[in-house]
Design goal:
Distance between the termini: 25 Å
CATH topology of the largest domain: Rossmann fold
Strand order of the largest sheet: 12-11-8-13-16-17-19-20
CATH architecture of the largest domain: 3-Layer(aba) Sandwich
Shape: globular
CATH class of the largest domain: Alpha Beta
Structural class: alpha/beta
Helix content: 25-40%
Number of helices: 14
Number of domains: 2
Largest sheet: 8 strands, mixed
CATH superfamily of the largest domain: CoaB-like
Number of strands: 21
Strand content: 15-25%
Amino acid sequence: MLTNKTVILGVTGSVAAYKAAELASKLTQAGAKVEVVMTEPAAKFVTPLTFRSITGRAVVTDMFGPTSQHSIEHIALGGAADVVVIAPATASIIAKMAVGIADDMVSLTVLATKAPVIVAPAMDVDMFANPITQENLARLKARGFIIVDPGYGRMASGKVGWGRLADTEKIMAAIEGALGGSADLAGKRLVVTAGGTREYIDPVRYIGNPSSGKMGYALAEAAWDRGAKVTLITASSLPEPEGITVVPVETAAQMKRAVTKATAKADALLMAAAVADYQPKTTAKSKIKKASPNLSLELVRTPDILGEVKGGFLRVGFAAESDNLVANAKKKLVKKKLDLIVANDITDKKSGFGVDTNKVTLIDKKGKAESLPLMSKREVADKILDRVVGLLKR
């Protein structure tokens, strides 16, 4: 998809500038022609030589310098681009782009291009939350810019919150989506579930599991990149992905209602959520006081969403197992009448809950199993969707 595509990578003066080197490397490995343009502050964090070593191409920092392989570089770069990516994007560059100021090579390139522009903000918590920054981002989004939302975590300042540069995988996915992807799911409606449900004991306590929802989100984003209309029903607190209809839920019962409604016109349901198997028979209306040393709960089964929701859509289930992986997954496949099941060993630290990688086994309706190597969850998502595309064609 990226082979021979020209990607303009704009790097601005954020402490996260060093992460742009990894992005440049990934793009180059994927076959893209990466032209790096840098602001003067960016060059104080990472040297142009770093990017030149990675891409094999000259880095442009001067609006009128003779370093680029393009003629009249201040307009030619923008014209040559298949996609422009600003990562990291500071509050300053976002403000410039929002009002059309072009006084450095990055902002000028954006103003001169007709290619899709992807903006990946990275800045301190308070700067990102500032209403001016949010207004500028909203303005860019309204003009068709693709915003890759930042992540949550600890900043260089020591503060914790939203503002960390998005993961390289997420930015790569946005680039692939902007370039059109394979579009092999164009016109299809997919429903994806994600996260672990919460079954409440009282207003402050619940039965749950450590599912982060990352696999479901990777599926939803990959499906959207491939042209599908996606509804993501989620019990996760991850940021909402762009372009996708998101339905937040908490309990298994809420998820069942949402799935029933969403699958009425769906082509496929991918049930990646970790739905609790049991719920308290009754939920206390007030917080249960710690009056005695022991507390007994009567639990009942939660709704079997895959087994109970009716419709002629394709059904893909997930089996998180701690032993007898394939045998247990096959039982679930048959019992729930699935078209495909994705099984993973939750005892493996690299493919369990909360991590960015997964190692799964795909089992089809005939019981044929295919074990995949350890991959990123986005790569696993595309492997699953390859199967979905084939099944839908049948």
